[in-house]
Amino acid sequence: MKVLLKGHIACKGMAEGEVLVCRKPFMFLSYVDLESGLVHAKGHELEGQNVKDKVIVSPCGCGSTGEEPSLLLLKEAGVAPSAIITGSAVYSPGVIGAIIADIPMMYGFDQNTLGLIETGDHAKVDANRGIIELTKKEA
Amino acid sequence: MYLSEDEQRMLDGEQGLSVRKAMELLIKVGEAYGAEKMINVSQALVSGHLFTAGKGHELQAFAKIMSEMADDAVVKVPTSALPINLSLRFAKEVGLPESTIQQEQSTLTKRTKLFQRLGVIQSYTCLPHFVYDLRKGEHVAFLETNVGMLTNSWFGAMTNLDGNSTAIASAITGKTPEYGLHLPENRFGKVLIKIGPDLEPDRFDYADYVALAHWTGRLLFDRIAVYQGLPPRMRPSHAKYMCASQIYNSAAGMFHIVGVTPEASTLEAAFGGKKPEEILVFGKKEKREAYEYFCTSTDTKVDMVIIGCPHCTVQEIGDIARLIDGRRVNKDVRLLIGASESVTSLAKRMGFVDIIEDAGGLVISDMCIRLAALPPLSEALGIRVVASTSGSVAQNAYRRSKGKTSAWFGTTKNCIDAAVKGKWGGE
């Protein structure tokens, strides 16, 4: 099943990949090992997963000042996510970080829309036009 | 996005390459948020250490982006700098290798030259509100989540939580895109936080404010909190601990405290006349949960005690001096107090620094003191267990070391007792 989602563009670009969903505010700094891309925070809902080449979906960002450079560090290490999708763009360091690292990013999805997206789905993110084509995983 | 003639000229490169790059970045960010225009900022706050992250440093690529905006410009508005990541005095006192000390010496020289040329006030603190004369409604561009939150929440000045890159871009252009918390309609509360009847907020220690804001932050997502029932006599130093704690798990760059902060004279004002989306109650059980979250250690033997994240005020250093006067720091423990150089020199005049250092503690200025508890410094110093009044120190020591360093979290008194006894005995 395919679903089309429209949203706002935070950072332009085209990307696709398997979706990794976090239901809580997500930060790359602290939760993710910036050298390997592995989510290493103990007890985190994505613990043990790797953000490399994934489309990371969360309701919003959170964290501290270090969140902005952490996206460029992931990119430099070759383990950056392919795209980032957030419900809101209220956490500005995350948005600025995506722009600096040139990682396609879209936002502007309510809880119901975010609820449609599940880990394991495949997303084609067209952050030039503001459209996400979501292919649901086989049930 | 609409640009004024002046802004267009900056974009065209009439004021040099750095200003042009800065405008390009600010426009990209503005477009991301659908900003209609740029607004003037009257003050800025930039990174204290990233510009000088040189060859071999993990942040070299990022520092290059920052330097491009600093190479060929001067700041247009009063701008101060955040803490540095290693102070020379700290490096010497804790016995870091000679090569590290020499490298730090050369970085210091470079940094001083750069900031003198740029015109950046070398305050090196995450408590820069002594440097600025902020007023309600003023637009500023402040890097650092904690400082930005305090600026919005406590002073009623308006800033987004800027990035390292956008903060220097705003400093050299005097501009920021009009979005987020620069727009009054985005500054209203959404969630009401009440204090349970089983707690006595009049007796809250700094650590209790940390616990409150942490517990709240985990439930807020991107919504602005409105706290009700906190003491009218609470101080900015209490609020700064709340800021540093809340933002770690939520996105909004401000909160309101009814009857205390400037945009919350009444509950109605804080919510913009609307009803709260959700009402949460922080009671004894919730407070306990927050303390338990930060206390990741099972070993009561403490190696390091850190107070000063965010940087201490002179009053806090005075409190520490009174608690430690006549006692001695345990020989197996490092007690580190972090503050700005200006606060430290006041504390010296007051005799507080001598009392603390004669007892075996160290008062370190200019440095982001929590870094002592995180890798690579925690590894170099062999820190297994850290104790702090700061939730940020406690959770980051644990998270960033992948559990190799664990933490205790508690009141200033708990922490000083641990420094003296070498063992954690807090709640």
Description:
The complex is a heterodimer of chains A (139) and B (427). Chain A has 139 residues and is α/β, with parallel strands linked by helices. Chain A has three helices and eight strands. An eight-stranded mixed sheet of chain A has the order 1-8-7-3-4-5-6-2. Chain A starts with a strand and ends with a strand. The mean pLDDT of chain A is 95. Chain B has 427 residues and is an alpha/beta fold. Chain B has three domains: 5-178, 2-Layer Sandwich (Aconitase, domain 3), CATH 3.30.499; 188-292; 295-421, Aconitase, domain 3. Helix content of chain B is 41%, strand content 13%. Chain B has helices spanning 5-12, 17-32, 60-68, 88-93, 98-118, 145-153, 164-173, 206-220, 236-246, 267-271, 284-294, 314-324, 341-349, 352-358, 377-381, 391-400, 412-421; strands at 38-40, 44-46, 79-81, 141-143, 161-162, 175-177, 191-195, 225-228, 255-257, 278-282, 304-307, 334-339, 362-365, 385-388, 406-409. Chain B has a five-stranded parallel sheet with strand order 13-12-11-14-15, with helices on both faces. In chain B, strand 4, helix 6 and strand 5 form a beta-alpha-beta unit. Chain B is globular and about 65 Å long. Classes of the chains: A alpha/beta (139), B alpha/beta (427). Chain A binds chain B through residues 8-11, 24-25, 30-31, 33, 40-42, 59-65, 68-69, 72-73, 76, 87-93, 95-97, 99-100, 105, and chain B through 25, 28-29, 31-34, 47, 50, 58-59, 61-62, 65, 82, 143-146, 160-166, 180, 217-218, 221-222, 247-253, 392, 395-396, 398-400, 402-403.
